[in-house]
Write a structure and sequence with these properties.
Elements (H helix, E strand, L loop, with lengths): L3 H5 L7 H11 L2 H4 L11 E2 L2 H15 L7 E7 L2 E8 L5 E7 L13 H5 L2 E6 L9 E2 L6 H13 L6 E6 L1 H12 L4 E7 L10 H11 L5 H11 L9 H12 E2 L10 H5 L5 E6 L7 H12 L4 E4 L6 H4 L1 H12 L3
Parallel strand pairs: 4-5, 4-7, 7-8, 8-10, 10-11
Antiparallel strand pairs: 1-9, 2-3, 3-5, 3-6
Length: about 325
């Protein structure tokens, strides 16, 4: 990954006449797959063959997960949300895990053994994203994003949960905590996008081949490898699932709006921020500084050598940090 100094010395990045129109034209939509939309008002599979390819990869990736104690399809105002409950062995109150964009529950496979030692774990597939949740009504803004998740949590036996979000799931968790804090006992944000800093232009540019459906698979694999610190992603079940979702599912949700520092400062529940020191989804130094100003230094953990795929790189360490956090008196 290029250093900040190298990026600063590239002349074209410093020209507003080039930079501003480029950002306006590409925007964050390129990253999250909201580019080149179809007329449908809700997220959908582009064809039956693509849907079958994704769920074959989903099921294969799910084989690395423990057996769910319960599988629920929760009806909300915006569609049906697939929720899984996994029975833990610890005494901590239940956790709810939110995955990143274009992924779903199996992305947490590496984390389940250590998290289940803390207590019960719920996972869900984000509504309007590839997965087993089914969007039925348009999601128009951040209020709608918070509402469907609030309705899903309200259907659980618990009044509130220890909410844990990764990447876009981190933004989704923070967005809920701002608008429906009664459902959030504690909030853990793992390298969240659009929360402590914006997405770098380089990442937006690299995302283009991953978000244009007719581009070769190699472009999506290259982007997924880039976000994961350069590791090989071919023939990896979770990576295959994510690639298939990016290729075959048309998302219809709005771009995630940047969460403001005052909104973070005003959060009423305990918050833990975990930031990857080699993340390409924001500038790690800027994100760390924002998180420390808004939440306090003690609320921020930086994994210096981690990429954006830190949940797979440091599953036990992350579980230890979460355990200390959610069981704190």
């Amino acid at each position: 990954m290029d250093s900040d100094n190298e990026r600063r010395t590239r002349p074209w990045l410093l020209r507003p006449r080039v930079l501003v129109p480029m950002i306006a034209a590409l925007s964050i939509a390129a990253l999250c797959g909201y580019f080149l939309r179809s007329p449908s008002p809700v997220g959908h599979w582009n064809n039956a063959e693509g849907e079958a390819e994704f769920f074959t990869a989903y099921d294969q990736a799910f084989e690395s997960m423990p057996e769910p104690a319960e599988t629920m399809d929760v009806r909300t105002s915006f569609g049906v949300v697939r929720v899984y409950r996994f029975a833990g062995t610890g005494d901590a109150s239940p956790m709810l895990l939110l995955p990143g964009t274009a992924s779903s529950t199996p992305v947490w496979a590496d984390n389940m053994p250590s998290l289940l030692k803390l207590g019960d774990v719920y996972t869900l597939d984000l509504l309007g994203e590839p997965g087993r949740s089914i969007q039925a009504s348009p999601i128009s803004d951040a209020e709608d994003e918070a509402e469907w998740l609030a309705e899903a949590i309200a259907a659980l036996p618990e009044d509130s949960v220890n909410l844990i979000g990764l990447s876009l799931g981190g933004w989704t968790a923070a967005n809920l905590a701002i608008r429906h804090p009664q459902h959030v006992k504690t909030l853990t944000l793992i390298d969240p996008v659009q929360t402590f800093d914006g997405i770098p232009v380089e990442t937006i540019l690299r995302a283009i081949p991953a978000t244009v459906p007719w581009f070769p698979k190699a472009g999506r694999d290259a982007f997924n490898s880039y976000t994961a610190g350069g590791i090989e992603v071919e023939d990896v079940p979770v990576a295959d699932m994510i690639e298939a979702g990016m290729h075959h599912y048309s998302m219809k949700k709005p771009q995630p709006t940047r969460i403001t520092e005052p909104e973070l400062t005003d959060l009423s529940m305990p918050v833990l921020a975990i930031i990857a020191g080699r993340s390409v989804m924001h500038d790690p130094e800027t994100a760390t500084a924002t998180a420390r100003r808004a939440l306090g230094t003690e609320a921020v953990q930086v994994y210096d050598d981690a990429s954006h795929a830190l949940t797979g790189e440091y599953p036990d360490e992350i579980a230890a940090d979460i355990g200390d956090f959610i069981t704190r008196p």
